[in-house]
Structures are given as C-alpha cells and as structure tokens.
Amino acid sequence: MTQPPNQPPAGGFGAPQDPQAPQTPPPPAGPPQTPPPAGPPQPGYGYPQQPGPYGAPQQPGPYGQPTQQQPGPYGQPQQPGPYAQQPGPYGQQPQYGYPPQQQPGAPVPPQGGGGGGGIKGKTWAIAAGALALVLVAGGVVFAVVGGDDDGKTDPKKPTAKGKDPKASASAPVNPGDGQGDGHAGDEDLNAGREDGEAKVLWYKTAPKVPGDGADAPGMWITDKVAVKAAYKEVLAYDVADGKISWPAVSFPQKICSVTKNPSADGKIVVAYKSGVSSRAKCNQVQEIDLATGKKGWSAKIPERENKDDFFDGTSSQIGLNYAGDTLMVGRQMSGLGLDAKTGKKKFVVEQYGNDCFPKAYTGDAKKLLTVASCGAGGDNAHEELRQLDPATGKALWTKKFPKDWQISNVYSVSPLVVYSTNDDDKKYNIASFKENSATVQAEVGVDGLDTKCGSSFSFLNRDLSGCAGAVTDASTLYMPTDGKAGGANEVVAISLTSGKERWRVKSPEDQTLLPVKVENGGVVTYMQASYGGQAGRVLNIPIAKPHTPKTLLQNPAGTAAIESGFYSKDVAYADGRFYISATNLSGSAKGQQKLMLAYGD
Q1: Residue 265: what are its φ and ψ, rounded to 5°?
Q2: Rounded distance, CA 347 to CA 6, Å?
C-alpha cells in the first residue's frame, strides 16, 4: 500500500524473508558454448509502475516520465519509486556458476538451567531476533555468477582463423602462475587486424582451480600496472605489454574478498580462507602495495567481540571497504574498523537499539555507510541506512526504510544514490539523498532501467559497493536500460535533484551499452561484444548536446569470440586502454580459462 502524503512510513524496512524459502537449483557445471535461443523477455524486476517508499503514484509520460507530481511522505515533491523494467543485467551474456560456499548452520543457544547458562547481557527476545536474522541468512537465495567457457571452440562463434586464438609473441598469454610470460602459442591475436581496429595489447589465462571453482575478484589499474586476484594469487602485469610487473603474491588458501577500490596511497587489502573445509572462515587479511607487490600489515579478524555474541562471525565472506583512513571489515552482525595504514583496531560497529544489527557497508574517501537489519523475524522487521564517522564509527544520521523494503545496493556514495527493493510487491526504488543527510532529495522517475548490477545483494556479501553500469557525477546518474538480451539498449542521464530524465542515447549497433565512468565531460561506455561475432567498442557519450557517441576504441573482430566469452566480468578504461577480466573461475571447465584481456592503440 502507498503511504499517505506527509505521513511517516508504517512499519520498518526490508522485504520479509522466509527461512524455509526454497533454494535456487544449482547452476550448470559449465557454460554452454552456444548462445541461448532468442525469445520474449522473462519478468525480472519488470514491475508495474507502483509507488516506492518515498513517493506517490505517477502518471507516465514519455519514457515513463511523470507528467505531474504529488507530494511524498516527507513534505516535498517526490518522484515515485518502482517502474516497469525488462530483465537481464545490461543485456549481457548469461552467467554461469558453481554452487556457493556452504554456510555453517546457526549455532544452538545454550540450554537453560542454573549456573552460568544463558546469554549474558542480552534478553532472549534480542537473541531470538538475532537467530532469526542468521536463519534468514541461511535461507537467502543468492545468485553466483560463474566463470568462463570450458575452453572448447564454439563453431557458431567466428574467431580469427576460425578458432579461439591461444597466444602470440605480440599478445602474450600467461598461464596464471605469475612467474613469466607463459607459453607462446602459434597464433597472432592481431593477425588480420583491420584499419581503425584497436590492438590486443595482451591476453592472460587463469590458474587452474579445484572442482568447486574459485573467485577472481577485483581489478585495479594504475598508470603502470594492472593487478588481478585469481584463486590463491594476486597477479600484476605491465599495462602496455602484459609483462610481469612483480612476482605473484600467493596465499595458502582461496581468496574470498578484496577491497574494490584502492586506498588513497595505492594499497589494497585481500582476505583469504582459514582452511579448506566448508566451515573455513574468511578471516585472514593482507595489505598489498599495488606499485610494488610488497606485503604490508596483516591481521586475523576475530569472529566476535565477546563470547556472548555467538551469532556473529566472518563466515565464508567478509566485506572490505576503505572509508577515509579506515578499513571497514563487515562480519555477519557487526563491523570492525581498522586503521588503514597499520591494521590496528579503531572501533567496532555493533548492535544498537533493542534489535538492530549491522550487516553491510560501503564507503569512499570521506564517508562510511552501513545497513542494519532491525526486528528480524518480527512484525516490525525493517532495515535502516546509517552514515557513520569513518574516524570513530559514530552514527551521523539514521534513515529508517519502510516495512518490506530492502536496501539492495548503493550506486554511489558521493553523491549518495540508493537502490532498494520490495520483492513481495515487485517494486524497486532509486533515491538520491542530500549531502550528509537522511533527507531524500529525489526519487528516480524513469521507466525501464536495468537496475540489477549483474547480481543481487545478498546478506552474506556484507558489501554494498557500487553497481556495474550505474555511474554518477555531482548532479546526474547515468544508467543503462534493459533493451533486449544482448541487443541494443540506451544510456539515460537522470537528474539527481529532480529524478527526471535529462537525455538518452541509443546504442549505435545491435549491442548492449554499459556505462563505465564519467571522464572529461563524457560518459565512457562499453558497447559489449555480441554472440553474433560483433566485437565490442568503447564510446564516449558527451554530456553536453548533441550527445553524439564518439568511438574511443574499436575492438578487433578477430578476438570477438574471446571478448564475448567473459560471461562474468569486470571492465575498466584508463589512459586509452580497455581491460576486461573474469570475476569467477569454474572448476568444471576444460582447458585454460580466460582471465584478462587488454586493448589499446
């Protein structure tokens, strides 16, 4: 139901979560080698236009813009929240994966009786809420995007010389051990390159992984080095020629989390598992200097702050986010703020009120944000968004979201843009906030946006950091529309002060556009490679009129099959070079999997 204007929202925040909800069936062991058949789009967040948590119903106009506004519950004109949408993250290729890590079962509370039994310092009501939260976590159905193809050549995918190229002296491949340039193949990835096409600067293959697969998170680009995590290693390549920049940093167990962005002084932090069993914790963290590969401080993250917090822990993943001079480590029901330069403990973010438990974090050079789950399992179950002082962890403001709404992602920290969902009512909402304030500035009033970021937020991720395809400048949000799967879509510029559309640009080809960054007065956008053999392209869409896309790099047709084979991927554009890398590695793949590919002039 819509909240009446100028009235606070009833109830709390977060979609009700059923611990008995059925789990998603395991994905296929390996990705198919042919594209899925074309067909009508299936409903994803293809939600009817219904009001979100802040605004009133709208009358659709061109592109779904409202033609009139009604005041929202906070006494200002509001754009309504949810808008009809077609499925698919940016129309990209289907994503394949492997079963997620096993989540240990929730601990059983101690039995009642005399002596020291029971939970000290907490009421059983609070403990029951915490248990409900953990049980909810165990029942979350979360998508895991898988690795690359199985190394076989798809006869339907055109490639240079009719097969998937391996390597060449001009575009060396590395087997993933981080020690040298790898074996030289018999095929030149730049052979047959046409005038106007970019060069393949280098191409790397991934290390072999065990049967249950492995993560390949993060991709960090500096002016000299491209750094990539894969399985148990952090690898570094010269941006120009792909040669090894520094010896691989190896870990005894699987990498399980990384900082998405580096610190101001060029450091990253990598977390790895405590062992090999399904109950191994993601609790070992190591700082690494991107320039040199040298290890800095290291630490073991404690599972909880005191023995009574037995619902807390690191589990199979932790959140790692830089916020100012703090590294924020997210556990299941608390957070640990470490000094980013030394790794020493600064503060703890714990339960507040009667039943609010922090569960996810994000930040930037000046801000730290956290989401808390409150009243889990009860009638007042909701979520709250808080801005914290990154130096002390103290709350600067708190925003209570309405009942049944879940904070799914923070598209941007500065300016603050928050994506929330109401799964029961099939709605979503994108809201911008006033600077350093809990006040909603505007709600996005544009139809058909692709909001899903390639995967959905999960309780176990404890990370809200960003969304592939959603980029901002000080006043505008740039997002892709859905379009048809793998086909043409649009990039839309949306005002953060009004929520209205400023302009939109359609893809110049039957390929999907994905905004990458805002730079030099334009939106750098990746036009993704298609299954039909069309190579990708890097475009600049000017923010000023007439918004005519200009090609920055035309990727070569000869490597279109390699490029389109990155099913689960990160992309980056820096200093005239375009990088694409895998984010997951399949344990069922045959042969070497793709890890990273770089294009340039």
Answers
A1: -100, 20
A2: 38
Q: Report the 10 Å Cβ neighbour count for 514.
A: 25
**pLDDT tens for residues 555-576?**
999 999 999 999 889 999 999 9
3-state helix/strand/coil string of 215-227: ECCCEEECCCEEE
Look at residue 86 and tell me whether its pLDDT is greater than 70: no
**Are 246 and 228 contacting, i.e. CB atoms less than 8 angstroms apart?**
no
Instruction: Tell me what percent of the residues of the chain surpass a pLDDT of 90.
Output: 58
Name which of 581, 568, 508, 503 is nearest 538 in CA terms.
Answer: 508
Closest to 594 (Cα-Cα) out of 148, 79, 145, 85: 148
Question: Could you give the CA distance from residue 422 to residue 233 in angstroms, rounded to a whole number?
Answer: 39
Structure tokens at 53: 């948590």
More confident residue, 480 or 82: 480
Q: How far apart are CA 258 and CA 262, in angstroms?
A: 10
pLDDT band per the 50, 70, 90 thresholds, residue 461: low
Q: Whose CA is closest to 471, among 541, 371, 563, 401? A: 541
Is the overall model pTM greater than 0.85, yes or no? no
> What does the DSSP assignment read for 263-279?
-TTSEEEEEEES-SSTT
